[in-house]
Amino acid sequence: MREVDAVIARRLSSEVALINQISGYIVHAGGKRMRPKLVLLFANALGFNGPARHELAAVVEFIHTATLLHDDVVDESSLRRGKKTANALFGNAASVLVGDFLYSRAFQMMVSVDRMRVLDVLAEATNIIAEGEVLQLMNMHDPDISVEDYLRVIRFKTAKLFEASARLGAVLANADPATEEACASYGRALGTAFQLIDDVLDYEGDPHALGKNIGDDLREGKPTLPLLAAMARASDEERLLIRHAIEHGEVDKLQEIIAIVRRTGALQATRDAAQAEVEHAKQSLLQLPLNKWREALLEFAIQSVGRSF
Question: pTM surpassing 0.90?
């Protein structure tokens, strides 16, 4: 990861001062760097240790960072990772344009690896992520979406880059198609589990540890699984309260809604769904050779559902 950070610092460089300022601000603002770690872990697990893995790990971090810049503008967010968002500090226009810079820089970097399969994987991933963003926009303030539609957004918007990151490790190692698909399956399941736990933490997390405000999803009108599960189990009166909050993005009765979500077992139901994804991820690892990197990936999956921030 030190090598990846060195690549990030080098590749962020621009002759335009504002680009350096904004991109540096968000890339170095913290974060778990989960997607770059997946590239490295899968490449190592399959026996590839060339410098291209550092370049591609930085690429997926740039793509992820670009999505964050755009997301915060769309969601009108003011806090991420405990710090002011770039749009809150520099304005929406600058944030969107620097997000575009990071996307285009990522494509410059992936071309430098000179592997058509790499381009194929990442071009598809960025396209699917964009579709996921639009799907989520369409679902905002809609309390009637199905769980299947909600999961589809997760798999497009969040899990797709996890999937691509894991697949890239296999591509670099010239793995056979079955192994590549197993890696991708792990990434997809891990990314889904990770987002499900994020949705749980929006109702029971510590805002200081999370680095964002509790109830942000509801404030933005996002019908996440804890809310959908609560509505399926709540009384008619409670269901109407949640529906109204989603439709209007209101958090005046947030504490009452949190109490309903907890009482109905909706948070545990969401954790159970995340755990099922982790079990799928663990099964996918059986396709990989037994080594310390596979063991690290197993622990990675387990930690994703046990986290509190």
Answer: yes
